[in-house]
Amino acid sequence: MLTPDATIRFQDVEQVFMSSDGTAVQALANVNFSIARHEFVAVIGPSGCGKSTLLRIIAGLVRPTRGSVQIYGLPVTEPREEIGIVFQRPTLLPWLNILDNVTFPMRHKYGRVTAQETERARELLALTRLEEFAAKRPDELSGGMQQRVGIARALLHDPDILLMDEPFSALDALTRDEMSFELLRIWTEKPKTVLFITHSIPEALLLADRILVMSARPGAVREIIDVGLPRPRTLDTLSEKRFNELANHIRSQVFSRPVAA
Amino acid sequence: MNSQTTSAARSSAAPLQPELTKRKLLVLAWLDRLAPVLAALAVIGVWELICRVFALPNYLLPSPSAIVTSAFALDPGIWLTHTWATLRVSLGGYALAIIIAIPLAVLLANSRLMSRTLYPMLVVIQSTPIVGVAPIIVVLMGAGEMPRIFITFLITFFPIVVSTVTGLMSTPEELKELSRSLGASKAREIRNIQLPFAVPYIFSALRISITLAIIGAVVAEFVAAEKGLGFFIAFSTSFLRIPQAFAALIVLVTLSLLLFQVIALVQRWLFPWSLPKESR
């Protein structure tokens, strides 16, 4: 499981937060796993299982209480260049048009945007099928389109690693399926190491190579599932026998009581 | 068929007489647009009527016509002097409030220590009746424009602080994380993300505060001044020139409304995105 050439590696990671009433809350306990280069890994689990904490630790936004997290063999001590983040809400800047929203990270970090970066932003808008909306404002776009802008923004600096925190959970069911296939298409065109947090079992099965099933209080990895469904995945994947078997298995894992420690 | 369905959709009444309905709707639309003006004219008319029918003396309640007459009886230069004095104090205090309130709000929104220590003090200052403090300020700061500007500042700055803090705090947590994940400095986060997010909040406070600035200036002029519309009202009433005082009041209201509109226009020119979609 712990391959030496892993892109992301968690070793005995433990995370304890102080809650506002002064008690210690264990968010993650004894988390071990690694993700290979260009692998698509989904994380699924009940609310409060520390999925978001997991993502924020990789992003360098939260330091783990114990254990180590490595990216390309180097411990994560601060946010790193090779990471792009897509959030649950698109959180675009309402005062910028779509193109400027995509280039915002560069403008924000360096104070200016080069011609190449603008060119790249246009390519990404084409990749996310938004090129004719470049001059529009965020509130003129639908929720799904806004989230695609969020993806384009995360891809601007061509990160090796894409962290996605329930990116489609705020969308309606139809848009959600459409977005999953869009993401697969983008990922096929521009392979990346993806960590995708979700509440949806079908979404995880449709997208991922492997699925981390987590249990709550404290958050821990309960099982790592090799999806093994053939790619490219299409609507037909949803009706495959293995798809349903895995879905039932994960459901039973998520809903069963945590194993007594 | 098509026109029939549209007129039927626009009015549930009398679908057999579409022409009449259309005219009726047009009249209703005009009435709707003119309603505020008509209502105001009606109030002024009733006011004039009451004054004439009951032959009320001017020192009790001057009629609208008496107010207008007294306004034009006075040298326009005098009006200009007093209006200009009030405008200077209002805008001076208002500008001072903006210059101090917005950086203070940035500090409060980004530092727990600052908000824990400074916020209670601000609430105490805000809870102090400004009319009661005004004479003390005049004694402390002496004659001249400074105490008046300071009194105006005191009354205007609190709404700006509170609203700006709320706006800064409304910045989505994800964008702060995005900023941190890019390794951008806190100063950049405040300038590029937090402050723009606070713009709608800042402007709603600026609109409230500009009318408060006029109030502040008038209060200050009541206490100690030799010019300004507040002084002029106090002066006129002490000689029972009530129509003149009313005229000054109307100038004040007009000034207040004008400045309010100017702030709204500035927002529309500089930050159209910060307005609700339908009012852009």
Give an overview of the whole structure.
The complex is a heterodimer of chains A (261) and B (280). Chain A has 261 residues and is an alpha/beta fold. Chain A has two domains: 1-82 and 161-261, P-loop containing nucleotide triphosphate hydrolases (Rossmann fold, 3-Layer(aba) Sandwich), CATH 3.40.50.300; 89-158. Helix content of chain A is 33%, strand content 25%. Chain A has seven helices and ten strands. Chain A has helices at residues 51-58, 98-110, 115-127, 143-155, 173-189, 201-207, 241-255; strands at 8-18, 24-35, 40-44, 66-71, 74-75, 83-86, 161-165, 193-198, 210-215, 220-226. Chain A is globular, with a radius of gyration of 19 Å. Chain B is mainly α and 280 residues long. Chain B has two domains: 2-53, no CATH class; 67-279, MetI-like (MetI-like fold, Orthogonal Bundle), CATH 1.10.3720.10. Helices cover 82% and strands 0% of the residues of chain B. Chain B has eleven helices and no strands. Chain B has helices at 2-10, 18-53, 64-73, 76-110, 112-127, 130-141, 145-169, 173-181, 186-223, 229-238, 242-270. Mean pLDDT of chain B is 90; it is low at 1-12. Chain A binds chain B through residues 56, 59-61, 78-79, 83, 85, 87-89, 91, 93-95, 105, 107-109, 137, 139, and chain B through 172, 174-175, 177-184, 188, 192-193, 196, 199, 271, 273-274, 277.
Concise synopsis of the structure shown:
The complex is a heterodimer of chains A (261) and B (280). With 261 residues, chain A is an alpha/beta fold. Helices cover 33% and strands 25% of the residues of chain A.
Mean of pLDDT of chain B: 90
Number of alpha- plus pi-helical segments of chain A = 7
Count of all domains of chain A = 2
Count of separate DSSP helical elements of chain B: 11
GO cellular component, one term (chain B): plasma membrane
Main location (chain B): membrane
Keywords (chain B): Cell membrane, Membrane, Transmembrane, Transmembrane helix, Transport
Pfam family, one (chain B): BPD_transp_1
